[in-house]
Amino acid sequence: MIGKLLTRDRRRILYAFIAGIVLFAIGQAVRPGFASFDGIRSILVVASFVGLVAAGQTFVILIGGIDLSVPWVLNAGAILMVTSSLGSDARAIPALALTLGMGALVGALNGAGIALLGIPAVVMTLAMNGIMQGLTLGLSGGMTCTNCGAYAPPIVQAAVHSRFLGLPIVLWLWLGIIIIVSFVLGATRFGRSTYTVGNNARASHLAGINVSVVTIVLYALSGLFAALAGIMLVGFGGQAALGMGEPYLFQSIAAVVIGGVYILGGRGHYLGSVAGAISLTVLVSVLLAFNMPDYGRSIIYGVVILALLLLYGREEDSA
Q1: pTM above 0.85, yes or no
Q2: What's residue 159's pLDDT?
Q3: Of all residues in the chain, what percent carry a pLDDT higher than 90?
Q4: I need a surface site. Which of 55, 56, 120, 248 has the fewest CB within 10 A?
């Protein structure tokens, strides 16, 4: 009975959550208070930013793609949010719509290039990342423009720092996104189409699924989630900065892999990516507790991802 319930995908999600719990225990042993309620809450807030980006990355990886434009879509979103709102709550709603629309548009362009022009996802999204970097640096004058020093509107900062039932609002927002994404992937026709395209795009086309539309929508969602993460980050820090999106490319992909989403598409759940984002953030925090330098953390990231890919690859071969 338990064996039937614990499918391969569910086992991977469980492994990721267990890894997070073990890492919390290690952190508590190294630094007392690490696994206190306040400590866990702080780590979950940081993990939520990775989790938001990983939501979009999960969508595109499920169809065998990848989104390398995440860093500068996120960075452009953060700068666009502060420069269009100028720290005013009255401008917050239009600024939010503009920023999310920018992210979705950039993502849709990625999807159109991949689905309609046949450009490989790696090439298309990497090129788009370069375009967004150039546009961001050029239009902001390297963050020397008049409005670049503006703060995020108080309502956006409150969305990150204010609490409801003891938890920051951003965690409730993340919980809502977890429920929505899980529902879309698990209980809707669009979700089933996503898995079908990931398993076999040609067969999906023959079955009547519009593969191009599915691809464009999924990349648009990836861009939208990257822009949303940019908004939450300026709400967290108050201001935008150049390079703030750089860590989230590697971390979002790592979270998806740790969570057991099949890197070639067709299998996996966002709940796994959530577990991966939490485990990865706890791992970073533990390494910081050990005073591990940046290069050391990068080496460990790479080793963890390679080890999991090898482990999951052996599972695929033995299945």
Answers
A1: yes
A2: 84
A3: 47
A4: 120
